[in-house]
């Protein structure tokens, strides 16, 4: 996994989780959904990069 993509994936996961938890705490479900989507996008990016690494020879 390239280091820049790894950093992007992890930062999206962390920021998404923070946004989601903070939005739940103040009762903003619309923002919580956006945070969950960002977190999922980060997980997807990480999975994609791990898949790429698995096929490198």
Total number of strands: 0
Cα-atom radius of gyration = 13 Å
Q: Low-confidence parts, pLDDT < 50 over ≥5 residues?
A: none
What is the count of helical runs? Answer: 2
Give the overall pLDDT as a whole number. Answer: 91
Major sheet attributes: none
Q: What separation lies between the terminal Cα atoms? A: 13 Å
- Helix-strand makeup class: mainly alpha
- The helix/strand order is HH
Strand content: under 5%
Shape: elongated
Helicity level: over 70%
Q: What can you tell me about this protein's structure?
A:
This protein is 88% helix and 0% strand. It is mainly alpha-helical. Helix 1 packs antiparallel against helix 2 (29-54). The chain is elongated.
Secondary structure: elements and pairs:
Elements lengths: L2 H24 L2 H26 L3
Helix pairs in contact: 1-2
In short:
This protein is mainly α and 57 residues long. The chain contains two helices and no strands.
Q: What are its keywords?
A:
mainly alpha; elongated; 57 residues; 88% helix
């Amino acid at each position: 996994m390239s280091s820049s993509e790894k950093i992007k994936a992890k930062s999206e996961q962390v920021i998404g989780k923070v946004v989601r938890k903070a939005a739940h705490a103040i009762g903003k479900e619309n923002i919580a959904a956006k945070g969950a989507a960002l977190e999922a996008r980060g997980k997807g990016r990480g999975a994609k990069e791990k898949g790429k690494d698995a096929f490198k020879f």
